[in-house]
Design goal:
alpha/beta, two-stranded antiparallel ribbon, 39% helix, 25% strand
Length: 304
């Protein structure tokens, strides 16, 4: 039996969550799942329960997942060397076969199973299913004073999103199924492309006119120069933090993805600490949250 203090605390939590549930019911929320949250068993279980609860209270969650460490592990077992240029995996045809096996098979089905075991109805898809993520080859361009012209570097089957056909995902969400998306796109001639999961999640949020984009990471969020998490930022404030060097390094691509989403009409983007149990629920259903929120426009009240 709950003590009175515990019961009162539970009631307060539910009361705090109510306006958020009311506001976001029926809205699409795209969650990029990766980092420690994908490898720690306790965090995996809490993530699955968070997503299922979101759907149970009327939201339409869509999960996009990464899988870099798992790809690296299998490549190592197959004695295939992993190569990276500017943080992107060089993806030969042989490596692409492994990427498809890991992302479209092992990792995707593990997430689907977790969601189903938690009481949800989930289905895994890749961008090749229904050709719903059309992609083209991504190349890296390098310039330097010693070069007469920029150097174009071919990194293989690494892609960028050209277009997204939302009908596959809409069909699933309208039938109370949680889509779990592996970030593999299809080219003009049926070739496969490995695409950064953050970019896929951001583009999905844009074309689906999502309420929120959530990017799970292994960091607390965007930190100011004193090491404190900053949140409730609008685009101009984010740009200022980039210009003065506060946002730099590996955080830049995630922040860029978040900015692109809110500039395209997504109401808010969140960079969330996936190392915190139930971080998705804490960010959505509480006033304080556990990460950095980037807003399309400033809200005057404390409402979510």
């Amino acid at each position: 039996m709950l003590s009175l203090a515990r019961a009162t605390e539970t009631a307060q939590v539910l009361t705090e969550a109510l306006p958020y549930i009311q506001r976001f019911s029926g809205r699409t929320i795209v969650v990029k799942y990766g980092g420690n949250a994908m490898t720690d068993d306790t965090l995996k279980a809490s993530f699955a329960r968070d997503i299922v609860l979101m759907q149970t209270v009327g939201m339409k969650p869509i999960v996009v997942h990464g899988g870099g460490p798992q790809i690296g592990d299998l490549l190592a077992r197959l004695n295939i060397e992993s190569k990276f240029i500017d943080g992107m995996r060089v993806t030969s045809e042989e490596t692409m076969d492994v990427v498809e096996m890991v992302l479209g098979g092992l990792v995707n089905k593990d997430i689907v199973s977790l969601l189903n075991q938690s009481g949800g109805r989930a289905m895994g898809v890749t961008g090749k299913d229904g050709r719903f993520i059309r992609a083209s080859k991504l190349t890296i361009e390098r310039a330097g004073p010693e070069l007469e012209a920029p150097e174009i570097i071919d990194i293989g089957h690494v892609g960028q999103v050209e277009s997204i056909d939302t009908r596959v995902l809409t069909m699933l969400t309208e039938n109370d199924v949680i889509p779990v998306v592996a970030p593999i796109g299809v080219g003009e001639h049926g070739e496969s492309y490995n695409i950064n999961a953050d970019l896929v999640a951001g583009k999905l949020a844009e074309v689906l006119n999502a309420e929120k984009l959530m990017l799970l990471t292994n960091t607390e969020g965007v930190l100011d120069q004193n090491g404190q998490v900053v949140t409730g930022l609008v685009a101009e404030e984010v740009k200022a933090l980039i210009d003065n060097g506060t946002i730099s390094g590996g955080m830049l691509p995630k922040v860029g993805c978040a900015l692109s989403a809110v500039n395209a009409g997504v109401n808010s983007a969140h960079i969330v600490d996936g190392r915190v149990p139930h971080s998705v629920l804490l960010e959505i259903f509480t006033d304080q949250g556990v990460g950095t929120q980037i807003l399309r426009k400033r809200v005057e009240s404390a409402a979510p």
